């Protein structure tokens, strides 16, 4: 059973996940001489936007020349599913704080890890598809060249440097997980001390 302070921390951990709706969870920035001010994408739980107002449109134009598919946020099923996944995690976290069960806390934390790994894998597959399945009639063709953005870190793609990193929304998810883990580990330490 959890005490009052632990329950409050778990409740906060669940509510903090709302930050995943308020800020992008991932960012892909492109650096190139023709874009000195920078250009990039912001991936939210329910949409993809540009770093600047016209960036998504400009990136789609660039992608057309090298044969990449157009990025159409409304056609990406994950963007329709992810909001429900985050809401589910918030609801389960609140339920854990109400029911006060350590086992439920362990399951909730495991769910967060599994869903984060699944999300990263899905993002990798998405990037692989966009970067490898190129239109053979594209105006610019470089034999053997693929344009998959990095999953994490930076990569040179022709004259562009692509940088892919977690954004603010991911930090909220991380803080939520750390708060839950703190409560779980603290309970284990206390139990060992009483033995």
How is this structure best described in words?
The protein is α+β, with helices and mostly antiparallel strands and 195 residues long. It has one domain (4-182). The protein contains six helices and five strands, in the order ααβββαααββα. It has helices at residues 4-16, 19-22, 55-66, 78-99, 102-132, 168-194, and strands at residues 26-32, 35-43, 48-50, 153-157, 160-166. It has a five-stranded antiparallel β-sheet with strand order 3-2-1-5-4. Helix 1 (4-16) runs antiparallel to helix 4 and helix 4 runs antiparallel to helix 5. It starts with a helix and ends with a helix. The mean pLDDT is 92.
Please provide a brief summary of the model:
The chain is an alpha+beta fold and 195 residues long. It is built from 6 helices and 5 strands. Helix content is 56%, strand content 16%.
Number of discrete domains: 1
Order of helices and strands: HHEEEHHHEEH
Low-pLDDT ranges: none
The residue fraction in helices comes out at 55-70%
Number of strands: 5
What integer value in Å does the Rg equal?
20 Å
Question: What structural class should be given to the helix and strand makeup?
Answer: alpha+beta
Number of distinct helices:
6
Give the biggest sheet.
Answer: 5 strands, antiparallel
Name a few traits of the molecule.
single chain; alpha+beta; 16% strand; elongated
């Amino acid at each position: 059973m959890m005490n009052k302070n632990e329950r409050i921390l778990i409740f906060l951990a669940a509510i903090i996940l709302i930050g995943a709706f308020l800020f992008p969870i991932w960012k892909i920035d492109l650096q190139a001489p023709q874009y000195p001010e920078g250009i990039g994408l912001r991936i939210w739980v329910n949409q993809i936007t540009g770093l600047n107002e016209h960036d998504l449109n400009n990136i789609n134009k660039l992608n057309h020349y090298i044969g990449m598919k157009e990025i159409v946020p409304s056609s990406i099923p994950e963007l329709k599913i992810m909001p429900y996944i985050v809401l589910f995690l918030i609801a389960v976290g609140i339920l854990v704080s109400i029911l006060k069960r350590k086992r439920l806390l362990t399951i909730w934390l495991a769910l967060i890890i599994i869903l984060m790994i699944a999300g990263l894998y899905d993002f990798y597959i998405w990037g692989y598809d966009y970067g490898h399945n190129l239109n053979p009639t594209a105006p610019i063709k470089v034999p053997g060249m693929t344009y998959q953005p990095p999953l994490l870190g930076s990569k040179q793609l022709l004259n562009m440097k692509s940088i892919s990193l977690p954004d603010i929304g991911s930090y909220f998810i991380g803080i939520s997980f750390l708060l839950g883990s703190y409560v779980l580990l603290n309970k284990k330490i206390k139990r060992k001390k009483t033995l």
